[in-house]
Amino acid sequence: MYIHERNNWTNFVWDNEAIYPLLVKTRYLQGNLLGRMQNLGFNLTTESTLISLTLDVVDSSKIEGEFLNPEQVRSSIANRLGIENAEFVSVPRDVEGIVNVLLDATQNYITPLTEERLFGWHNSLFSKGFSGLHKIDVAQYRSAGMKVVSGNFGKEKIHFIAPEPERIEQEMHNFLQWFNAENKQLDPLLKAFIAHFWLVTIHPFDDGNGRIARAIMDMQLARSDDSKIRFYSLSNQLFKEHKHYNNLIEKTQKGDSDITDYLLWFLHCFERALLASGKNLEIVLDKAKFWELHKDKGMNDRQRLIINYLYDNYDKEIAFLRTSTYSKLQRCSTDTALRDLKDLVEKKMLKAEDSGKKTNYLINSPANIRIPRIETEITRT
Predict the structure, then answer these.
(1) In degrees rounded to 5, what are phi and psi of residue 156?
(2) How many CB atoms lie within 10 A of CB 218?
(3) d(CA 145, CA 158)
(4) CA 332 → CA 112, 302, 303, 323, 340, distances in Å?
(5) pTM of the full predicted structure?
């Protein structure tokens, strides 16, 4: 029996004695980081918001097996937020659609969530009417049964079976009524996690349910912060732990209305997301100090772009910056790349590390943060 097959399945209960200490700890960390963000000033706050939203869009899609170009996502968000001096690149329609959903959820978090708004989100995700090669119902609830499966054809694993389509309209009416109602007895953070599980359980659309559930969760998290400032990415942390995340959803679907374990896991995951955001904040501050320190030093567009690229991707799987890497990223000759890099070293903006036959170049960080810090092969889409 799945949870939605039980009578009054949305009468969720949990062990307050188990939840409360972790909730207090997490809320304190959340408030502390938000306070730090609000004291940074407009430019640094905007930069941190851009980083967090980019991670949210990219990693929420990764959970569904879709890999977006982070530069395109960042450019789309910067353009929508009106961020000056951002590097704008051509952005495909599907990326714009995903960005539109998250920005509407987090920047217009006070606006009630309605059926019409959800249909608009779904249309943004699937504006062409297809999910991959399959035509789907767009901007309307699904009209067929739904099994949530994984694995290859013939070896599929059924994680759970969603409610019958004739139940969806009433189930969504109940959900939206609950989500929009003020409940002073329920902590806003717990409400975000419950809303995510509730929507995933109903699975109201042919596709995109996971992304929409996480957008709703982000919307409620913005309400819990009471701020448009985004200084963490829970989707980024969920992607890092996506196997545990998927197993948790499946386990909770097969349980009863006691969701204590579900809430505890999400609180711990959110705590880890907040701690990771503290590292992102360090990078934002380091980048600001770097440009202030070197504001009077001349450089060409290629050099300026590569510095920003390294800061913006400091924790991604990119190669140590080498002449060949620079040449690939800037689409210039290796001779030009070498001249640019040597010039940046002379100006003490980069530092060179000898690794035997090759030289690695790193940001000369004011706070001695290693940027970039992961050595893997570089790919560019």
Answers:
(1) -65, 145
(2) 25
(3) 13
(4) 50, 9, 12, 10, 10
(5) 0.84
Average pLDDT, the chain: 90
At residue 360, φ and ψ (nearest 5 deg) are: -100, 140
Nearest-CA neighbor of 66 among 108, 106, 105, 97? 97
DSSP bridge pairs for 359: 354
CA dist 208 → 103, 180, 228, 295 (Å): 16, 22, 24, 44
**pLDDT at residue 151, as a whole number:** 67
- Extract the residue ranges of the chain whose pLDDT is less than 70: 84-87, 151-153, 315-319, 373-381
pLDDT 10s digits, 94-123: 999 999 999 999 999 999 999 999 999 999
Pairing of strands 359-363, 350-354: antiparallel
Residue 332 to residue 348: CA distance in whole angstroms = 22
Three-state SS at 309: helix
Q: Which residues are paired to 134 by β-bridges?
A: 131
Residue count of the chain, please give it: 381
Structure tokens at 252: 């909770």
Distance CA 259, CA 295 (A): 53
Residue whose C-alpha is closest to residue 342's, from 333, 330, 332, 352: 352
The tokens describing 227, both together, are: 């701020």
**Euclidean distance between CA atoms 77 and 59, whole angstroms:** 15
Element (H, E) at 38: helix 16-38
Residue 373 phi, psi dihedral angles, 5° rounding: -130, -5
Alpha-carbon span 297 to 282, nearest angstrom: 23
Q: Distance between alpha carbon 21 and the CA centroid of its chain, in Å?
A: 26
Q: How far is CA 175 from the centre of its chain?
A: 24
Question: Distance between CA atoms of 361 and 73, rounded to whole angstroms?
Answer: 26
Token output for 263: 């809430």
Q: What is the pLDDT of residues 302-354, one digit of tens each?
A: 999 999 888 877 765 555 788 998 999 899 999 999 999 999 999 999 999 88
